[in-house]
Amino acid sequence: MSLPDIQKAGELADQVSAKIKKSGGSLVPVYYKLEEILIDYRRQGIDVDLVMPALFDVDLEHNTTNPDGRSIWFAYAEVLHDDLCGPTGSMHKLMESDDVVTGASVVQLIMDKLKLPESSALLVAPIAASVLGLGIGAFCKHHGEDKSSS
Fold first, then answer.
1. What is the block-wise mean pLDDT of the chain (150 residues), using blocks of 10 residues?
2. Which long-range CB contacts under 8 A does 39-43 form with residues at least 24 apart?
């Protein structure tokens, strides 16, 4: 992946993360940003299936409604949960490390972990922002609440 793409996605993750913190942990900024990016991807003719986590089976073609920000966030949260919430996971270790964790580093880690193509960087940015904005404990707790309300 080219550095400018990761940097751009990282900057977006940092911006959305700040909005999450300012809103007291609401994921609404993440959902809106994901929907914005999906619209842009469709305009550019990018196949959304290619930037979804391969571990999550989403039938976008036969779905009668377009995926929204919440469903996209949930798909990513589902596949990242064990690695982020488990103390031995690589994402958990990065977030708990003493190193400075940036939007770009979390975007890169998610893309590497899920073996996503370069074109997914911007879509991954709001997901990275939710991890940064909520922190591990709140992300894992929020994911559990989101799952039970589905």
1. 79 96 94 92 81 54 62 87 90 82 91 86 93 88 56
2. 40/122, 41/119, 41/123
